[in-house]
Every structure is written in structure tokens, then in C-alpha cells.
Design goal:
Layout: H1 2-15, H2 23-39, H3 45-66, H4 68-74, H5 80-88, H6 94-125, H7 136-159, H8 164-180, H9 190-212, H10 218-244, H11 256-264, H12 267-278, E1 282-284, H13 288-319, H14 325-360, H15 371-375, H16 379-382, H17 385-393, H18 395-405, H19 408-436, H20 440-473, E2 478-480, H21 484-492, E3 534-536, E4 542-544, H22 555-570, H23 573-589, H24 598-603, H25 607-616, H26 624-649, H27 653-673, H28 678-700, H29 709-731, H30 739-762, H31 768-771, H32 777-804, H33 816-840, H34 845-853, H35 856-879, H36 890-904, H37 909-912, H38 917-945, H39 950-956
Antiparallel strand pairs: 1-2, 3-4
Protein name: ER transporter 6TM N-terminal domain-containing protein
Domain DUF2421: 734-887
Subcellular location: Membrane
Length: 958
């Protein structure tokens, strides 16, 4: 018995492998599920804060439609409360939202008054003896008013970027009032008010949510960007200063594009954050003028840091030059001696900047919030007694620390003065030795680095002095209101709006910065803004220079000149966009004005097709196919999601609000974390809102009929798709605007502008009379403004470069690598010419005059060759012309000029010790790098446009 019992398990174990067991598979699946759940990481609350805030604004507006009392108070157009919030985007700072609310409400009010006039005139044209309100005469009047209103609105929208929100709300008002009036007998102003009221209510909700629910502090946003940028600058300074005094040629592999990327990274964002601060109501220790000063200080650090990085590049080129062994040995020895002199100053600057960052953190704005603090906002801030006790108890300690740190700027000044004397003692003998040995590159390299280090130290001293000043004067937080000057500059300036608006016509929001460098014709090289493009007529009036005709002299000629300008304006891009939009809107609105179709078109709410057409019609550039597909997919996804939301809630308003809130939060989270899905998410939100709210209104009897949800969703999807497709078709008429073409024209425009800046600078070395004049304050401001315009043009060109990747290669492959090289080269040239402008301010007039009188003809030939090359590159890129077969390149012109300079000019010890020698050396190094970049740009342009070949003609005619 025992034996059989012992045999049984043996037999069972032997038979186990013959039968497959599901146990291991089940355990693997369970383990996989456990691992998958463990790997799911919920994003931090800060990532969800803005999507939830936007979803709260949307759900508040939706509840006003779901609530009978609110809907009856607002009117039948209560759905517009939620729609306008999609465009207001209340998750931004209060000042930005407030500005958009002002513009949007003003635009809606003007459109409402205009619509009232149109409805009144249409009612006068209506025959009172005919009962049916849709009549040919009244319809004709409404069509005329609709066409004119949309035409003017579109021109304003594309001509004045900051009026975008005003035009969006005007489009919504036009689409409802001037169409519904066709079926409304008599003159009833309430028809307009029922659409104006929800627009203003939606604006109020956006403003309230932006100010009350987790408000975004513009000061906090600015200080985040500022401190991050200052830390990046400090790290850059340390890395490149240490690399400069390293004799290894493979130290820091820096290039001019990498210099730009590291130093320019957050500068445009910082400027836009500064503008947001200026138009916001602040509760902070700092005000708008303090922020302007901080922005100016960090912007002044950039040229010096760029020069230090350029010094590292030039040093590496010398050490890698196999034909300059003697110069390399001398350079390595000089670096070892100068390292001992400059190392204390570089360390002091690095530590002082770190200290300034820590001292600026108390001015950061609002303290960082914990998750619980954020969720329970604002009560933890109201009852945060522990914070105030800690603040009072630690006040004396903080004051002692501040007193201890106030000597930093003074000590840094003293160290700079002390090391300047030591550097003179060490550097001048080395400089004279390099000059005698004709090592001009090393000679100017030392001058370049010392000049940039001195200026960087002076800027750090200015930063520390400002920090000490605000520590004394800005001891407590208080309210700061926007100044009248800032408001006038904001609302009455003619400059384009560079704020961080989320605008519907922007096909892809690639960065935080919205670049609106809108030019009438990017490829127009005879830009009327150039002073040389004007000619003085006999009457003393300036006219645009036209090679076909002379300036008008008689009344008849002036009359026809005015007619000519009117025709040019009528065929301009903005006017044509207005004409296309108005014509398309009227064609799609025709069923409202025809008696047989007005009723069913009204029942279908065809107004939404008009709204989508007006909002999404834009200049097609780049990702036209991608944008259209994403909009259509977003529309379909919104309709399907609306059906799902309705089926989940089953018409329960509370359940519908909860499910809508969850859907809004998820969609806005996707929108903010993945900019490529921006158009998809916006159309999904719009269509979802239309389907859910319209279905609820039909169920509650607000609208006649009882259609099922899929029928309503199908109608909404169809109407939105019609608007999207119509906008896409009109955008490509008469021809689509390609991003690669706009990129080429814009690059030509930028090269021309860089040439203009270079001509302005070099004129001070060509004309002795100009050389003796110091630049005025207005000239300096104008030069900085031109360089900032270049930065924004190049930022727009980077957008075009990105958009070109979405264009299908129908006619051939796009040479993206070559255009990328051109873009990076032009970017570096813009940085270098800006650096030359900063350096030129420190060269004394007497030294400039001496340079202008030395080798004047050779210098003129050299500069003329460079400017001619830039003009040729700009012209050939714009017109797609080939370069001439015979051309003196900038590199050859530079070599010829240096050869003449070396034979006829030698530096004496007095020249080397001259106060302007350091700035002169920095200018020489920067201008040499500029010429090298121009030579590379010329070679790349040859690959793109080609070179004329006279021998080809000879071969064909042999």
C-alpha cells in the first residue's frame, strides 16, 4: 500500500511534461500587467495645472448652456460662451488674457453695431406686404453688408496682428446676425444682443478663470526664464574661459551655430515675458522698469559671451593649422603666462554671477506651490501663518547676509582694476613679440579675449550694482499697475505683435514665441523702407524710386500716381485675402438668402461653416496638406467623441458636465505637451462642444426637433468639414504658398538686411568726416532695433524650414541640408555684424579717422567687394538667377587687403598700448569671421542657383 502510494506521485510527475500547463502563461501575463501598471507614471500636477484650468473655464461656460436659468438669461446663443473660450485660452497670464479680452470685446461690439445697421437697412428694403421675410431686396442688402464686413475684417486681421481676437469675434457676430436676419421679419436689435451677450460672458469667464484659478504670475514666468538664462550664460562663460586657456586643440568643439543656440535659446522668450509683465497688474517687489533693466543687463552679456566663444574658435583654428607651427608654439607659451593673470578674474566673475542668481531668487515672485497647496488654492496662502512667522524671525539674519554680500560689486571693480594693470605688464610684451614675428592672428586673438572679458566683467558689475540697489529699495511686495507709457506703447504702437498668442491662423505653434514678421513681399529687394529707394521730386516730396518713370510733377501725374497706388493696394496679398474670404463667405451663406433653402439651412445651423471658413482661412505655407488633414481628423474625432460623451452621460446634465470636463482636460493636456497636435485638438474641442451642447438643446426642446445624437453629430461634422475644405481650397487660390519658396525669399531679404547693417558700420572706416562723429543715442537704439528685427526674421525662417519638411516632394527633393547651412550661416553673420556694432562704439574717433585715412582705396575695394557679394547673393536667391562667372570672392578680397596691409603698415609699441587697440583687435577678429561665413555662404549659394558658364555657349556654337 505504501509502495503504491509512493509510485503515484512518480507517475504523475513523469506525465506532467506531456500535458501543456496554462499556469506559466497566466503568471507571465500577470507579471506583465503588474510591471505595466508599475511603469505608469502620472505626470506631475504642474503639467496638468494648465489643462485643468482651461478645462474648468470650458466646463463653466458649458454649464451655463446646460442650466435652464443661465441659458434663458443669456439667450439661444449661449453656446458661444464655450466657443470663444477656446480662442481666449485663459490658461495664460492675466495681463495677456485681459488684453485679448479688450480686443475681442471691442471687435464684437463694433461688429454688432455694424450688423444692426445692416439689419436696419435690410428691413427698409423688405416689402411689408409679403409675409415671408426672405426677399430678394433684403437678401441683397444683407449680402452686401456681409461681403463688406468680412472683407474689411480680413484685411485688418492680416494687416494688424494684434487685432486677431477682435476679428475672430467679429467673424462670429457676422456669421450669425447677418444670416439669421434674413429669416427674422422686422427690425429686432435683440437678434444681435443674443449673440453679443454670450461672447462678452465668455470673455468674462476667461478673465475670471485666469485671475482666480491658479493664476499665472507674469513676474514668476519672467524670473524663471531670466534665472535660467543667467545660469546658462554663467555656465557658458566658465566652460569657454577654461577652454581658451587649454592648449589642447580638442578642448571645447564650439562652432558659430552652437554659440548662437546656447546664447540665444531663451532671449526672445524673455523679451516676450517682459512685455507680458509690462501689461499686467503686479503684486511683487519688482516693477516693470526693474524688469526692463534686468532684461537690458542680460542682453548686454550676450555680445561679450559670444566674443569669448569666438575667441575659443579662433584659438582652436590656429592650433589646428599645420602650416603655423611657429605661431602655435608662441601661442601655447603666451596662453600659459596669461592664464595666471586672467584666472582670478574669471573665477571672480563666475562666483559673482552665482551669487547674483541666489540674491535674485527672493524677487522671484510667488513661492513655488506644493501639490496640496495648488489643489487647495487660495486658502493655503491665506492661512500660511508659519511662513509669516518664519519671515519675521529670519528678517535680521537675511539683512546680515545682504550686508555681507554688498561689497561684491566693489571688490569686483577693484579686482578688475588690479588685474588690468597686471595684464598690461604681462600682455604688452607678448603682443609686441607677436607683432614683430608677424603673428597677427595671435596678436588680435589676445586683444579680442581681453576686450570681451573686460566688458563681461563690467556688465557683471552693473548687474551686482542693480541687485544691491533693489535689495535696498524693494524690501516688500506691493501692487504695481501698468504705466501710461507702457499702455500707449502697447495699444498705439505700429510694431507687430510678438506676444505668445495662440492664434488660429498659425498653422503650427512651434515655440513659446509667436513671430509675426509680416512683410508684404519677402522677395521684394527694392523695399520702400530703404532710404536709397526714395527720390526727391521737384515739389520737395519724397517718392518711391521707380526705374520706369520719374516722380510725378503735375496734378495729372499725381492723380494717376494715386490711382496706381490704389491698384497696387487692391492686388496686394492682404487685399486678395480679404476678397477671397468675403467671396467664399458670401457663397457659403447664399442658402440663407434664398427662400427655398433658408429654413433647412437655418435648421442645420450652417452658420458654423461660415465661422470655420473665416477663422481657418490663412496664407497656406508649408504644411498645407498636413494642416488640412489634421483639421479634418480633429473634426471627425470631435464628432465621434461627442457621441461617446453623450452615450455615457445619457442626457444627464451633471454627468454630461463631468464627462466633458474629463475630455477637455485630456485634450488640452495633449495640446500643450505635443504642439504638432494643436490643430487636431482645437477642432476636436470645438466639434465635441457643438455635438454635446446641440444634442442637449434638442433634447430639452430649446431647438425644435428630436434628432438622435448621431444625426446631430453628422450635421456638425459635415458643416465643420465644409468650412475646413472651403478654407483649404481658397488658401491655394490662385496658387499655394510653399514654405520652401518663402524660406528662399526670406533668406534673401535677411542677407540684404545684413548687408545694410554691414554698410552702416563700415562707413565709419571709409569717410574720415563720419569717423570723427560718435554714434548718437538714437542711432544706437536704431541699430539694436535692426538687430532684433533680424533675430525675429531668422526665427521665422526657422519656422519655414520646419514647415518645409511637411511638403510633399512632387517636383523633386528639397535640398534641406543646403538651406539649413544657408540659414545657420546667415544666423551667424547676423550675430557677428551685431557684435561688430557693439565693438565699434568703443573705438575712439581719432583711431577710426586714422584707419579711414590709411589704405583708403584698398579698404574701399575690399568693402565694396563684400557688399557686392551680399547684394548678389540676395538678388540671385530671390530671383533664382545664376551667379556671374567671374567674381572676386570675399575670401580673395580679404587676402588681397591683408597683403597690402602687411606690406604698408606695421604696429608699433605705441599702437599696441593705445586704449582702442583692444577694441580694434576684437573688431578685426569679428570681421574676419564674418568674411569667412560670407565666403561659405557664397559657395553654398553657388550650389543652389549655379554659376553662368560662357564656355558652354562657345561649345554649342563651335
Amino acid at each position: 500500500m505504501s509502495k503504491r502510494e509512493d509510485d503515484t506521485p512518480l507517475q504523475n510527475t513523469q506525465s506532467l511534461p506531456r500535458q501543456p500547463s496554462p499556469a506559466p502563461r497566466d503568471s507571465n501575463i500577470k507579471q506583465f500587467m503588474r510591471d505595466w501598471v508599475a511603469n505608469i507614471k502620472i505626470p506631475p500636477f504642474e503639467t496638468w495645472r494648465k489643462p485643468v484650468k482651461q478645462a474648468l473655464a470650458m466646463i463653466i461656460a458649458s454649464i451655463m448652456t446646460l442650466s435652464d436659468s443661465c441659458r434663458n438669461s443669456i439667450g439661444q446663443g449661449s453656446l458661444l460662451c464655450a466657443i470663444v473660450i477656446v480662442f481666449f485660452f485663459p490658461a495664460r497670464t492675466f495681463g495677456v488674457v485681459f488684453e485679448d479680452v479688450i480686443y475681442g470685446t471691442l471687435g464684437a461690439l463694433i461688429a454688432s453695431l455694424y450688423s444692426l445697421l445692416g439689419i436696419f437697412c435690410a428691413n427698409l428694403a423688405r416689402d411689408p406686404n409679403i409675409a415671408y421675410p426672405v426677399q430678394p431686396k433684403s437678401s441683397g442688402v444683407l449680402i452686401v453688408f456681409l461681403f463688406i464686413g468680412v472683407y474689411v475684417m480680413t484685411i485688418i486681421r492680416f494687416s494688424v496682428p494684434r487685432a486677431n481676437f477682435a476679428c475672430i469675434h467679429a467673424a462670429i457676430i457676422f456669421a450669425f446676425t447677418l444670416t439669421d436676419a434674413s429669416l427674422t421679419p422686422g427690425f429686432h436689435p435683440s437678434l444681435v444682443w443674443q449673440f453679443l451677450i454670450p461672447v462678452t460672458v465668455g470673455a468674462g469667464i476667461s478673465l475670471a478663470v485666469s485671475a482666480i484659478i491658479w493664476p499665472d504670475d507674469s513676474m514668476t514666468n519672467y524670473m524663471n526664464v531670466f534665472l535660467k538664462g543667467l545660469e546658462g550664460h554663467n555656465t557658458f562663460f566658465k566652460e569657454h574661459s577654461e577652454a581658451f586657456f587649454t592648449v589642447s586643440p580638442a578642448s571645447v568643439a564650439t562652432t558659430l551655430p552652437s554659440l548662437h543656440d546656447r546664447l540665444q535659446g531663451c532671449m526672445l522668450t524673455l523679451i516676450d515675458c517682459k512685455r507680458a509683465v509690462h501689461r499686467d497688474i503686479l503684486y511683487s517687489r519688482l516693477n516693470g522698469s526693474d524688469i526692463s533693466k534686468l532684461t537690458k543687463l542680460i542682453k548686454e552679456l550676450r555680445p561679450s559671451l559670444y566674443g569669448i566663444g569666438l575667441s575659443q574658435i579662433i584659438k582652436r583654428e590656429i592650433l589646428q593649422d599645420e602650416s603655423a607651427q611657429e605661431e602655435q608654439d608662441a601661442l601655447k607659451g603666451a596662453i600659459g603666462e596669461l592664464d595666471k593673470v586672467f584666472q582670478p578674474l574669471t573665477e571672480a566673475c563666475y562666483n559673482a554671477t552665482k551669487e547674483a542668481i541666489e540674491r535674485l531668487r527672493p524677487f522671484h515672485g510667488n513661492r513655488p506651490r506644493s501639490i496640496l497647496n495648488s489643489i487647495l488654492w487660495p486658502f493655503p496662502r491665506i492661512f500660511d501663518v508659519h511662513h509669516y512667522i518664519k519671515k519675521i524671525m529670519g528678517a535680521s539674519t537675511n539683512n546680515d547676509v545682504i550686508e555681507e554680500k554688498r561689497t561684491t560689486s566693489t571688490s569686483l571693480k577693484e579686482l578688475l582694476t588690479q588685474l588690468a594693470a597686471e595684464a598690461d605688464t604681462t600682455m604688452w610684451p607678448l603682443a609686441v613679440q607677436h607683432s614683430l614675428n608677424h603673428h597677427e592672428r595671435s596678436l588680435h586673438l589676445f586683444g579680442q579675449y581681453r576686450y570681451q572679458l573686460r566688458h563681461y566683467t563690467q556688465r557683471i558689475v552693473s548687474l551686482l550694482e542693480f541687485v544691491e540697489e533693489i535689495e535696498q529699495t524693494r524690501t516688500r511686495r506691493r501692487f504695481w499697475f501698468p504705466t501710461i507709457k507702457a499702455l500707449k506703447k502697447r495699444f498705439f504702437s505700429n510694431k507687430p505683435n510678438e506676444s505668445e498668442h495662440h492664434q488660429p491662423e498659425d498653422p503650427l505653434d512651434l515655440t513659446l514665441v509667436r513671430t509675426n514678421t509680416r512683410r508684404e513681399a519677402l522677395g521684394d529687394l527694392e523695399n520702400p523702407t530703404e532710404q536709397a529707394s526714395y527720390v526727391l521730386s521737384s515739389s520737395g516730396k519724397l517718392y518711391y524710386r521707380d526705374p520706369d518713370v520719374d516722380p510725378p510733377a503735375s496734378r495729372r501725374e499725381r492723380f494717376w500716381y494715386t490711382i496706381h497706388k490704389m491698384i497696387l493696394w487692391a492686388v496686394s496679398s492682404n487685399s486678395m485675402m480679404g476678397l477671397k474670404t468675403a467671396a467664399g463667405t458670401v457663397l457659403m451663406a447664399l442658402p440663407f438668402y434664398i427662400a427655398n433653402s433658408a429654413a433647412w439651412y437655418m435648421e442645420w445651423r450652417g452658420n458654423w461653416a461660415l465661422i470655420i471658413l473665416q477663422i481657418w482661412l490663412s496664407r497656406a505655407s508649408g504644411m498645407f496638406i498636413y494642416a488640412t488633414v489634421m483639421r479634418l481628423l480633429g473634426t471627425v474625432a470631435g464628432g465621434v467623441l461627442g457621441i461617446v460623451v453623450w452615450e455615457i452621460a445619457q442626457g444627464n446634465p451633471y454627468g454630461l458636465a463631468v464627462v466633458l470636463f474629463i475630455a477637455y482636460a485630456i485634450l488640452y493636456y495633449i495640446l500643450m505637451t505635443n504642439p504638432n497636435t494643436r490643430m487636431f485638438c482645437i477642432l476636436t474641442v470645438v466639434t465635441l462642444t457643438l455635438v454635446a451642447i446641440y444634442t442637449y438643446n434638442y433634447k430639452m426642446g430649446v431647438f425644435p426637433g428630436n434628432s438622435p445624437v448621431w444625426t446631430i453629430a453628422g450635421k456638425r461634422i459635415l458643416l465643420v468639414c465644409i468650412g475646413v475644405v472651403a478654407a483649404a481650397i481658397l488658401s491655394i487660390i490662385p496658387r499655394p504658398i510653399m514654405a520652401r519658396v518663402e524660406l528662399r525669399k526670406s533668406l534673401a531679404h535677411t542677407v540684404r538686411d545684413v548687408g545694410r547693417l554691414y554698410g552702416i558700420l563700415t562707413s565709419q572706416f571709409l569717410v574720415p568726416e563720419i569717423a570723427m562723429l560718435n554714434p548718437t543715442k538714437e542711432q544706437k537704439k536704431g541699430f539694436r532695433r535692426l538687430t532684433l528685427d533680424l533675430r525675429r526674421q531668422i526665427a521665422e525662417e526657422r519656422t519655414y524650414m520646419h514647415l518645409s519638411s511637411y511638403e510633399p516632394p512632387l517636383r523633386g527633393r528639397f535640398p534641406a541640408e543646403r538651406y539649413k547651412a544657408v540659414l545657420e550661416t546667415v544666423d551667424s553673420m547676423a550675430d557677428l555684424v551685431a557684435g561688430m556694432g557693439y565693438i565699434l562704439e568703443d573705438i575712439r574717433p581719432s583711431w577710426r579717422q586714422q584707419m579711414a585715412n590709411t589704405l583708403q582705396r584698398e579698404r574701399l575695394d575690399y568693402i565694396a567687394s563684400i557688399m557686392t557679394t551680399m547684394k548678389l547673393i540676395a538678388t540671385t536667391l530671390s530671383a533664382k538667377m545664376a551667379l556671374p562667372p567671374y567674381l572676386i570672392g570675399p575670401g580673395d578680397a580679404r587676402d588681397r587687403f591683408l597683403q597690402s596691409l602687411n606690406h604698408r603698415l606695421e604696429f608699433s609699441s605705441e599702437d599696441i598700448t593705445h586704449p582702442s587697440f583692444l577694441s580694434y583687435s576684437a573688431y578685426i577678429v569679428t570681421s574676419t569671421a564674418f568674411v569667412k561665413e560670407l565666403q561659405f555662404l557664397l559657395e553654398t549659394a553657388e550650389d543652389l542657383v549655379g554659376v553662368e558658364d560662357p564656355q558652354e555657349w562657345l561649345r554649342k556654337h563651335m
